[in-house]
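Usage

Read records sequentially. Each one opens with the input sequence:
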Amino acid sequence: MRSDPLAGFFTADAAAILGAQDRLAAADEPRARVVHPGPVPFLPGMRTARAGLWSEPFFGPIEARDPAAWGVIELPVAVVHPGLVPAIAAALGLREVEVRAVAAMTAWLDAEGRVRTPPGHPGVDSGLDTWLHAWPPDPPDRELRRLEAACDPGYADRLVEVYAALGIDAEVVERDDESWQDEAYANTGPAALAAALAARVGPEAAARLLVGRVPVPPVVERPLERRPGGVLVAGARSGSLAELLRAAVRLGRLIELHAPPIIEHHDTLVVQRALQAVLAAWDASEAPAPTCDRELPAAARGPNEAPVWPVPETHAQRRRRAGWRSWPPTGRCWRHRRRASRST
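and closes with the structure output:
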């Protein structure tokens, strides 16, 4: 894989990433366009989707995958490759943390190309990740929730304390008339960076610094993983590519339907995080921070080491009716047979 120029996309080297970008844009380098994940061929003998991640026409037969067969995912909007953040910052005269804040929609670019944050915000260096559509934030503070549910007058004082711990100026937030929102929503995200880059370095150079196509490596570079019973599942690499495809398809559909800006912005961030997860699977970037935390329910014991029920080893065995799957028996329903035996 490393001998192919497209492999540079899955690194943190800006020169290698730009080389892969140029290769993807070359007219003499057609690539199979992967349009949907397709079902995982979790058992030998299963068919694969023609334009999916495990397509045999694209990547070779299952028995002999082509190690040089690459595909491509086309994104509905251009997003930011973490490895190109320094180059984008240099082109725009910004700091890297400012570029990341605009890409994450926690800040926006004004008419002069300066990075702006909402009133009361502690600034992009604070690491506060509340996006613009959710400002001012609703901190996950248990005491704050209790006071709010009880309609306690101490809620306001507690909110000021929590905001102060986050570096937020509560007085400025209270005086905010939200007049900044129209400008902010129209000039944030990867699209705002693309427009600023086009004005500064030209459309072609701007397109080169943002990601509109993602190469899909050969299947041998993202193999399936075997689970107890012989079932195959998508590994971290193929699984992250599948999530990116789902997010890209959804965003493209929302754009076609002219979804409200807040929905389009949200799904753009989903695509951005999905790309980061793909790169993290190849150790080219840090994994994206989880958007929510869930606690697993308390369990008496963990999962079984081996499946309790017999797991089919081939697709043909999976299609064979056995056990409870064979009910009701062929012919008349078993309830009818039972009634007939009673009548006699």
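Summary fields computed downstream for this record:
- Strands lie at 32-33, 71-79, 108-109, 115-116, 211-216, 225-226, 232-233.
- Residues 236-256 form the longest helix (21 residues).
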